[in-house]
Amino acid sequence: MPEPTLERGDITTFDVDAIVNAANPMMLGGGGVDGAIHAAAGPRLLEACRQSPAVGGIRCPFGEARITPGFDLPARWVIHAVGPIWGRTPEPELVLTSAYENSLALASTHGLASVAFPAISTGAYGFPLDAAARIAVEVTRRRWGSVDDIRFVLARADVFEAFERALQR
Ligand code: APR
User: Coiled coil located at which positions (predicted)?
Assistant: First the structure.
């Protein structure tokens, strides 16, 4: 499995098989990267999210992932992953690990080759940067079937540096 790569930038501009969205359990959009992806993908993305079955308003529990088309994005697919809320979600390290694992399992099930991740949970959800980066790198270094191109697309310099440190471990 080739090493995951780091890029600075806006994940909505990446032409890959799938970009991963740092979503919330309701999967109806939000701020941060969720807001940027919905804005770039257009209103059909929200329609597709609404069609995902909900149980008590929850479409994607913490640690899980769902896939929709990318619509107006350059990416063919969007994988909506819900990371833990630091200080609220129990076992946050396990839940963040699961969010990455479930995203890559979905990508592999769909036979995808290239996947771009944001730094899940490191924004509004408050996960400490170095711990989040270590988890992301550990999961993405494993073999994931058809997936052979994993990129971390980091908007903030401090997040980029945390991922650089994690890749040097
Ligand atoms: N491209 C790449 N990375 C981005 C972009 C972008 N366009 N916009 C923001 N980011 C980065 C942030 O800098 C942060 O490092 O994505 C990381 C994740 O931050 P958030 O988007 O706040 O996601 P998260 O911390 O997982 O919180 C999820 O926020 O937007 C809401 O609906 C979302 O409730 C959910 C919560």
Answer: none
**In this structure, is the dihedral angle defined by the CA atoms of residues 92, 94, 97 and 102, taken in order, positive or negative?**
negative
> In ligand 1, which atom is closest to the CA atom of 34?
30
pLDDT tens by residue, 103-132: 999 999 999 999 999 999 999 999 999 999
CA of 35, closest atom in ligand 1: 30
61 Cα: distance to centroid of ligand 1 (angstroms): 17
Instruction: Give 15 Cα–ligand 1 centroid separation in angstroms.
Output: 19
**Host domain of residue 53:** 5-168
| Rounded Cα gap, residues 164 and 153, in angstroms | 12
Q: For ligand 1, is residue 8 a contact (CB within 6 Å)?
A: no
12 alpha carbon – ligand 1 mean position (Å): 12
What percent of the residues of the chain are helix, what percent strand, and what percent coil, each to the nearest 5? 35, 20, 45
The total number of structural domains in the chain stands at 1
Q: For position 100, which CATH number holds? A: 3.40.220.10
